Amino acid sequence: MPYGELAALKEECGVVAAYGVGDDLPGLLYMGLFALQHRGEESAGIAVSDGEQIELVKGLGLVSEVFTTSCLHDLNSIEPKLGIGHVRYGTTGGGGLDNAQPLIVRYLQGNMALAHNGNLANTDRLRREMEENGQIFQTTSDTEVILNLVARYRREGIVTAVRKALRHVQGAYSLVLQSNDTLVAVRDPYAFRPLALGRLGDGYVIASESCAFDAMGAELIRDVKPGEMIIIDEEGLRSERLCEQDVPRHACIFEYIYFARVDSVIDGLNVHAVRRSLGRILAQEQPADADIVIGVPDSGIPAAVGYALESGMPYEEGLVKNRYVGRTFISPGQLLRNLKVRLKLNPNRHVLEGKRVVVVEDSIVRGTTSRNLIRSLREAGATEVHMRISSPPYISPCYYGIDTPSTSELVAAQHSIESIRSMIGADSLAFLSMEGLLQAVPGGGNCLSCLTAKYPQQTCQERN
Ligand code: SF4
């Protein structure tokens, strides 16, 4: 569960898939989804196939709430050889069980199940056109739009159908799709959302993040390339390109700053190592005269450790989080609501009392969380609070799979740094520079749109 400012940003899903990994494929998908829980807490689902039929279990809630031992046993009873899984935090189409994924269609040419992570830009138009042609939708999710597009071309075989369907689609997507006997995984041509390929025994696994492979006992092979379609069937694994021409890669840089788990490796870079570098560079660029460095759990901690190492100040556990405050916590009154903040994240008075504190956070979104945090640090005895942010100011919404507040709610879009400092009550406030960010995430090809307010315009579909 996220605690800091970036809790205002919500990742919109995680996907996992497996083919030919031996016994207990549903159990392995379950382990993979468990490792991806941070990418979505609203619903979870697994679809599996034995080559002739697809079975599906999905529900609202955490992975541990949706899947019981008996339902995993039921999925296993068909002796599945391939399957896909999904955890969802969704805004497009809203919540509810209907929109939980995987989505499944059963029709004359066979069955299909689909799960995706991302945000499509032209779903409304596509849905309207399809409805005008008599298509009936059972959900409000854009995943069903993709599924129906694939079904439209299904007679041409699953691979051609996916390729043709995705030529209609604009936006960010990393998806896994299965027919009765074939697994397909696709990363959009810009590669906005992560997707990785791994090996397990004689089979293959796919997941949003490599931490899922660790949980499944699998080995990371590589990231799925921009615009790559991976097909796994009885003949093995093959790779095809979705587009004939390349478009500039735009992999989300906030996966490194905040969304991904620290033990994941994305496009060759370990997330923990990147966050620590962000902290080191931040300390070089924005030093502070203080006694200790603390981080906002969880994602701010590696950057705080990096800041401490570089500055020579000790890193201390100044904020203690309670891992057991769930989504279901009931807070009926203002008093309990205020106490709930403390229950989630409690300043450690023993560490903070009489100290000048550098607090490292990964971003400022609305500013309200930082204001409350700084007040609580002072109440716990901190004599000075110097806030250091391990990314440049977040000034513009994301349209590529992350649910963000509007520009009017983004404090860095509306106010100067000095004005934000005054609003949140810090003694000093400083952000990492864009140069510093790009130094910590070398190689280029990352999306920076929420930091620059510049968005890629051209689509693969327009180029083909
Ligand atoms: S706009 Fe920001 S959050 Fe969205 S994909 Fe780009 S870098 Fe990631």
Would you write up a description of this structure?
The protein has 464 residues and is of the alpha+beta class. The chain has two domains: 5-242, Aminohydrolase, N-terminal nucleophile (Ntn) domain (Glutamine Phosphoribosylpyrophosphate, subunit 1, domain 1), CATH 3.60.20.10; 266-452, Rossmann fold, CATH 3.40.50. It contains 18 helices and 25 strands. It has a seven-stranded antiparallel β-sheet with strand order 4-3-5-2-11-10-12. A six-stranded antiparallel β-sheet has the order 6-7-8-9-13-14, with helices on one face. Strand 10 and strand 11 form a beta hairpin. It is elongated and about 70 Å long. Iron/sulfur cluster (SF4) binds at residues 192, 252-254, 398, 400, 402, 447-450.
